[in-house]
Amino acid sequence: MSAEYLGGHILLYHGVFESIPTGLESRLHNVSPVDFREQIRWLRGQFEVVSLNDFIAVPDKRGLATITFDDAYADLFTNAIPWLIEEKLPSTIFLNSNLIDGAIFWRDKVRLILSKKLEKAFLKYFEHEKWIQSIKTERFYKDSKKVELNSQFVDQALDTFLVENNLEDELDALTKVIATEDDLIDNPLVSYGNHSASHYVLSSLTPDQQRKEIVSGQAWLNSREYRRTSSFAVPFGGTKDINPNTFRFAKEAGCSAVLMSRRAVNTMKQKDPVTELLILERYMTPPTLEELVDLSHKLDRIA
């Protein structure tokens, strides 16, 4: 256990691509395999690296760290997870059940539009609809996930636009960047968790839609025999991305903890006051070891 760090650190990765797939070049959080291994070797030297379930169970999290991945990009199962298993290091992958079953990740559709420089064309296509006024060209990525825009509706609009612009082949290619169930690795060092069914902004949804996202995602996991965590990882992970229903439905689904992504570490016990679900903090890893070291020190000092 590190005497240098005062908080418990939960690292969050998304892609570990050697080369980012065509269409996803814009705004995909990615750490190359070489940098990933360098970061994890450093992590192991500074912290006691434990499974997420063990991290949750230990009251004093000082000097502990755990490794998590969101969205289950297919590259994880070639570039990251096998190596972690070789190194005898535990990890947790939070997946979206609809995406594992073949649906296209709606944020990857947004990245495709950005890579094709079609933001203005998208806004023009829907210019007579009131909701489109919330999205500005220069803020297309962020504005398209605003809380006031129902994510499920935006996803449908993305499909309409992309098909209308004859981008079916590009859409088909996007089905291959997320892992399928055949890619998932069954190993005692690998746990899987619920990241909702479709990765929508939960607070943008109706209560019925949000319940379905959380409960059906957990039901999918529960019907499999993989090692699981009872934690629920909030899509996008910000304070604005949740509301009281999020905790209520997570508890209904049988979850015991909710993971946020607010660039913070864990120094004291946080609980939702109504459901009493444990709240844990994570931070996204920067692309290089030097940046990770700087960020980890900064977050630990301000915790």
TrEMBL record:
Name of protein: Chitooligosaccharide deacetylase
One GO biological process term: carbohydrate metabolic process
Subcellular location: Secreted
Any one of the GO CC terms: extracellular region
InterPro entries assigned: Glyco_hydro/deAcase_b/a-brl, NODB_dom, Polysacch_Deacetylase
KW Protease (keyword) present: no
Residues of the NodB homology domain: 63-303
Organism per entry: Kiloniella spongiae
SUPFAM superfamilies in the cross-refs: Glycoside hydrolase/deacetylase
Keyword Translocase included in the entry's annotation: no
Role this protein plays: Is involved in generating a small heat-stable compound (Nod), an acylated oligomer of N-acetylglucosamine, that stimulates mitosis in various plant protoplasts.
Family assignment from sequence similarity: Belongs to the polysaccharide deacetylase family.
GO molecular function: hydrolase activity, acting on carbon-nitrogen (but not peptide) bonds
Source superkingdom: Bacteria
Keywords from the UniProt entry: Signal
